[in-house]
Model the fold of this input.
Amino acid sequence: MFAKLPQTLTAPFGLLTDEAKLAFRSRPQGISKLYTTRHIAETDSYWDQYFTLFDTPSDVFSLISTHDIRRALLDSPENVATLIRVVTSRLFNLVSDHTFPSAPPASVASYATSFMKTSSAERNATKEALNSLRILQRVLPVVFEVEGESNAFELEVLWKKVEVDDEVVPTAPEQAPQFVIEDDDDGSESGHGSNTQSQTPQPKRTKTLPSLGEKLFTCVNDLLFCCGFSLPTKIQVDHYKINYVIWEKGVGSTTDSGPNHAYDSNKTEVLRLLLVLLSRQIYIPPAALFTHPSFYTLHVVRKTPRRDVLTLLCSLLNTVINSATTNNMTIASVAGKVPYNHLVFKGEDSRTALVGMCLQVLCVLLDFQSGPARDIVSDSGDATSSSPTAQTNAFRYFLAKLHRTQDFVFILSGIIAILEQQLAISNNLLPGSRKSVPYVPETIVLFWKIIELNKKFRAYLLDSDKAVDVLAHLLCYSLEIKDKPQQHGLCRALSYIIQTLSAESAFGNKLSSPINIQIPTKWVSQGASHGTAGDFIITSIYSIIATTSGSLNSIYPALIIALANAAPYFKNLSVVASNRLLQLFTSFSNPLFLLSDESHPRLLFLMLEVFNSVVFHHLSDNPNLLYAIITAQKTFEELGTFTLARGLREIQRVQQIKEEQASQPGRDRKDGTQQERASVESAHQEKLRLLKNDSDPAFAIALDIESASSSGEDLEAGLGGHEQTETRPLTSPPSENSPTTSTRTITAASEKARGKMKARRSLSSDTVNGDRMAAAGVGRNGFLPTQEWVTSWQQGLPLDTVMLVISELLPKIQNLQAGRQKANSAGAITDFLQSVTLTDVLPPAPVLYPRRFVWSDASIVWLTSLIWGGVYVHGMSPLGIWNSTNVRLFFVKHTQPPQRQITDTMSSVVGGLFSPTRQRPERSSTQ
Done:
């Protein structure tokens, strides 16, 4: 009797409908019928289960696999077409039905009964609409994948337009003039319409019905603004349930309907389908991105009515901006603040999911430039610029048209609030206790799009006091993700944003301002405190370059260009920031780095421009940088006489020393350890001497050899890592400028410098066959440095200004050092450099010409790939929207993350709190 009790209970109640869901995968009338039976009619009852069986998105994505859809497309493509038609038709009918949307459950009891089977009389229109959305979300990515660059199936099913006879529909008398005024006037003049037709036969008129895809987009827009489904019913007017009202207060709206879990969840479902429709372009290779634009995205950005574009744009934007300032207290928001709660509960609350989905849709729409949606290029003076129009991309166009100051205040405050949340998590006492804000990358891309498209917002940002805070947040996030290979694309985007901001003069005027935000201690250079914005941008760029072992060499140019753009505005640079600039310069001037790639001398050129800009515009305001330049005189002099042969000899000499130190079979291990420790201590003492402005103007050769042989002390110990098969950039320490020429040659070069001319050596007999063989081993990716190539960039280096400064100031500083005691010589030198003027020696300052970031086809394709790559990763969990499909826009590499137990995490945290190294966080990254 008791054995039959569960069956007795399960049969009538059907709790959770588990039996029907399991049978959908196994029985012949389930998913298998889709690809085993040909030509299933649209009126077949088989399709009804697709609307009533599933309760959650996970049900759809787990019970219908991509393999099922792919097999049906190959074996029975007509069934997939029928499924799309049936689902969309049901969705259209539901939206127009008076029973839609169904009333949401008002109690726990009614919510529980929603999981049980209901009779046919109790139809749940909202559930059917949601299941229709979910079915399309599951089917369409596989359709896009199978189609690839071909659009035959989609054109036939979704974009085929049908012409039908245009029959005269009877209308109310008062509505007739609104549509057929001219016809009515003609009929009234004749008196009898039938007589007119009999006298002059009219050709049969036809009209073109909108395609299925066009009606689907219209239905999606209606669902986003449907009262009772995505909007509160209190705003409904009469029986019109579709009201295009901005969701939340902010841009274009001063009213707020308040958060609602059910409405937020429904909005997320609709936006997910919109994102799936827009994802058609990820199944097109990058080379065809401009020639094969997505029909779906083109329709949204070019054919959507102006009212719908403005309402949707403001709704998405306001939802994102309000995310960090909302005060609603929900269980999910409170639980998210409990330390390590995200390790126990993996779910995501509806509000966070909605904000992330809004950001993804915004970024995709604002980024789209393909085919006729490309910005219009116009010539403005000396430069060419491009701007969107309402006909190319309405979303880009209307974002660029925002102009109210209160809107700018709202947007900027919201973006900073999101970045502050992330910084607070990074600066938390308990590392890893709180989950990172999941949509920070999309927020950064949105910020980039706003400052790119809206010039008034960019001007407002740079004129406000928040400009320095935004810069600090961007740099802090770059420092946070620089060691994560999966985030290197975002690091590149951040470098371009910093370059864009640095090209504005208003940005440069803010660099002397202090940083107001609380920067984590691990990113503050020792002895630098917070300093000014100029100090922080220098030390941050140094850390990004020095601690990534060449893995971010693609962003070096943008970061150094940002320094060159900002250099004319540098004032009162600290000792640490000044030495960081010199360390970058000496690393870029290292022969192994210079000769390894054709583009590397450009970085050296830009660093010289940084020094020249400081000399021309704020010479006496930067005594620390001036002193650092003077102490590095040999590096500048050797650049003036640099040849390929000498560079190769230097590389071979350093490599030979390393090999000799590595092969010492007769030495005891203990002796080797002591020697290594002595080398590290020597390098550390050299670093401290530089930071303390030691009076010695030269660098020791033996110390350079020791620091070159070590490999773990930041920039001084091998900034680019290894030197084997792939030559990493910045492989040498900044103090590795060991001269290979004799003292007599350096003295001669110095005399020429005192004559205010650069030393250039005749290079007729330096290149020999052995040097050519050595050069072949230095260049990477097939690059072969030649003497002609070295001459082409070496003679163009802007060394004159720096050499003039050195020749003028070095003798005076040496006299000061000789006439004073060492204890107070540093203060005297600083006072002297603060009062020095070289206007009678230096040429006139050149006109400032900042290098702006310029978009190209390659950069547009790259950013599109970056945005969609982030969307793809977000879609992997929990549903896996695009999983197991052949994406062609970017390469997907799957890695298995290491599993960490909660106990391991807690033990590492407790150990970290009581560890003595806790007081010196990440020392190696800031030295």
In short: The chain is about 55% helix and 0% strand.
